[in-house]
Amino acid sequence: MDLRADELTFPKIYCGKPRKIKENTKLTYAKIAKSELRMFDRRCGRVSKLFFTYKKLQTRKFCDAISINLKKTKNTKNVTAVQMLNRDYVSGLINNNDAFTFLRCDRSSPAFWELKKKEVLAMIRQLGCATIFLTLSAAETKWSELIVVLTQVLENKVITLQEAGNLSYEKKCDLIRNDPVTCVRYFEHRLKCLWEILSAPCGPFQGYELEDKYVRVEFQIRGSPHIHALLWLKNAPKYEKEKPESVERCTKFIDKLVSVSSNPTEFSHDLINLQRHKHSHTCKKHVKNGNKCRFGIPFFPMRKAMILEPFDDGETLSNEERKKISENKKNVAKELDKISKDIDNSLSFDQFLENIGINEQEYIRAIRVDLKKAKVFLKRAPNEVRINPYNPMIMSLHRANMDIQFIFDPYACAVYCVDYISKSENGMSKLLREALNELKKGNSSVKERLRVIANKFLNSSEISAQEAVYHILSIPLSISSRSTVFINTNRPENRISMLKSDEILQKLEPDSKDVFVEGLIDTYVNRPDEMKNVCLADFASLYNVSKRRTGYTDPMENSDDESTVEDEIDDKSTVLKMKNGKGWITRRKKRKIIRYRNFKLHQDPEDYFREQLMLFLPWSNEEEDLIDINHEETFNLNKDSIKQKRSEYVHSEASEFDQAFEEHMERKDEDENDIDDKNVEYDQ
User: Fold this and answer.
1) What is the spatial distance between Cα 463 and Cα 472, in angstroms, rounded to a whole number?
2) DSSP notation for 253-309
3) Taking a C-beta distance cutoff of 8 angstroms, is the pair 355, 335 a contact?
4) What's the CA gap between 525 and 507, in Å, rounded?
5) Which end of the chain is more exposed for a tag (fewer CB within 10 A), N or C?
């Protein structure tokens, strides 16, 4: 609470004097912190100051979040402004089921990543299965340009790229450690340029335009940022195992985009070594016969790229065949272990098979016997069994460790969504839940509960210096090519609404019932007559609402991250005024991704039919058009039009994806060891 805490804590920076701010200038602490990190004077970029600033920002953010959360209540009818000004009355209406969702204001919290997980699931449901899974690491010690910048900033010395490359590893590490702000800003600038190239017609995806992407920034053990991205490519082939032409198209597509070549004529040894896996204690997992690399390295050599399926029910194996395959597997494993230790071996694929003593057909069968689902095997020479897949153009531009995989089944997407987006927050979720259960046993007020949970999170979370920089500078940790909007399709009595501020409530008439901030559904009801045939899904996805005719601000946007997407307004669209005169409506160029309650037919048929009618059929009065009707009968009468409209928001693969996602959730605990943990730090 001390307004001069910064000046008193860091006398070598401020000399005990308060900051000089011009009169009549309103500056938040967040803006001051951003300004200080970008200054030529690097003292505010010291690690101790970074963590102090981060903690102070988080504390202030949680105080604001608690205040906002106390204004969220059930959307109760027939309540007046006088009642809502009574804090005791409001406390009785507050929903406590999700007591730590207010932590969404913090981008390292489980609540934030739970929301992002739902947004990615909605993207996959609406756009279909992603095409490419891309991973990009940072290699600060290998980027001479960064070392040049750090030397100039920290030591006021100008050196050449060659001199930077010749510095000792220890010296480079000291420079990187002493200025995490410059390292973060350099990495972000590098990524921004890379995304522009990936989106260009002549980029690495030439012939397959990059239509959509979802990017998550996470942090490795050493504290450096690490990128995981799902990419949707236009006209990319879809894998259908029953169709040979589909398999052939997918194989050619993979061959074009992905390589594991160690040919020195294409890349220098330094670049190839970035892709070469080195076993460490972090990559080992325990299996029945000992330890095994969780990445499946060494990989199997292959004559050409192939997609292999596990044995199906029609391919029964005799005891003799099983015994032979088992022997072949042992021979393959021994030879793989041998050649993986000799990266300079010059064996051909045929010589590799000779050493094992089996033909190619038997070799393929030995691989297939352990498969649980379809898997891509890249064209790979025996001396490339420890090289991670890469794209040659991206590799030459990024000059750091990368991984690229073709996604061809919904199960792979389900694994990504569950295990990659929220994987690092599992322990924190458990800690917060235990704290909440303890609080429920006492008689603490709602505000006290929220305060305790916020403190528990603040004092238990661990972050690196570079992650602190991301938070202070408000650099997005979650980037999407599309906005996401949530449509609350619960029944009216189960929806949570935001109370207007006390200042506004005091100006209302005592018996006024206009006490809640207007939400998406209220806005839809007040749409102009020209839009009477627009359904709720289209209204939320295709239109923006602003309070002023010019200058777009979207109250319906459901993003807790900073500037993750840009809204594309159609300049040619007509601007329409809402019926209640409280806003203006314009059409977008690109659809938003819609999220909703998603009731299941087999679990809750009544709400399922009501939700379908609410989303995909135009209506004006919720009570008359959606509540007091026979939902199944109305649905059957309008089945064709609902089905047609629904197909625009639910991809044909969605049911397959949902099934895979549910299966994965059920067997997650049993099958955990079979899922690669991509959070392990790549070798640099």
Assistant:
1) 13
2) HHHHH-B----TTTS-HHHHHHHB----GGGEEEETTEEEETT-PSPPPBSS-EEE-
3) yes
4) 25
5) N
Q: Is 431 exposed, middle or buried (0-12, 13-18, 19+ CB in 10 A)?
A: middle
Query: Could you tell me which residues are beta bridge partners of residue 291?
Result: 286
The DSSP bridge partners found for residue 232 are 212
The mean-pLDDT minimum among 6-10, 18-22, 447-451, 626-630 falls in: 447-451
In angstroms, rounded to a whole number, what is the distance separating the alpha carbons of residues 105 and 98? 14
Look at residues 424, 452, 420 and name the one whose alpha carbon lies nearest to residue 436.
Answer: 452
Which is it for strands 593-596 and 484-487: parallel, antiparallel or unpaired? Answer: parallel
Contact call for residues 372 and 393 (beta carbons, < 8 A): no
pLDDT in tens, 579-632: 888 889 999 888 999 999 889 888 899 999 999 999 999 999 999 999 989 999
Identify the weakest region by mean pLDDT among 16-20, 31-35, 428-432. 428-432
How far apart CA 242 and CA 145 sit, in angstroms, is 50
Q: What is the pLDDT of residues 639-678, one digit of tens each?
A: 999 999 999 999 876 666 666 666 655 655 444 433 333 3
Output the average pLDDT for the chain. Answer: 82
Average pLDDT value for residue range 419-432? 62
Give every CB contact of residue 654 below 8 A, 6+ residues apart in sequence: 124, 125, 126, 128
Sheet holding 478-480, edge to edge: 402-406, 132-137, 225-233, 210-219, 478-480
| Cβ-contact 227, 475 below 8 angstroms | no
Cβ proximity of 368 and 310 under 8 Å: yes
Rg (CA), the chain: 28
Task: Tokens for 581, please give them.
Answer: 């005169």
Place of tokens 């969605």: 654
Burial label for 665, CB within 10 Å (0-12, 13-18, 19+), is exposed
pLDDT at 92: 53
More confident residue, 415 or 52: 52
HSE-CB at 528 with a 13 A cutoff on CA atoms is: 14
Rounded Cα distance between 592 and 554, Å, is 12
At residue 224's C-alpha, the angle toward residues 221 and 228, to 5°, is: 90
Length of the chain: 684
Instruction: Return the half-sphere exposure (C-beta side, CA atoms, 13 A cut-off) of residue 206.
Output: 7
Name the DSSP class of 626. Answer: I
Burial 461-493 (b: 16+ CB within 10 A, else e): eebbbbbbbbbbbbbbbbbbbbbbbbbbbbebe
Query: Both ends of the chain: CA-CA distance in Å?
Result: 43
Question: What is the reported pLDDT for 100?
Answer: 54
Beta strands in 371-512 (DSSP E): 375-377, 402-406, 478-480, 484-487, 496-498
* Burial environment of residue 23 by CB neighbours within 10 A (0 to 12, 13 to 18, 19 or more): exposed
Identify the weakest region by mean pLDDT among 356-365, 543-552, 662-671: 662-671
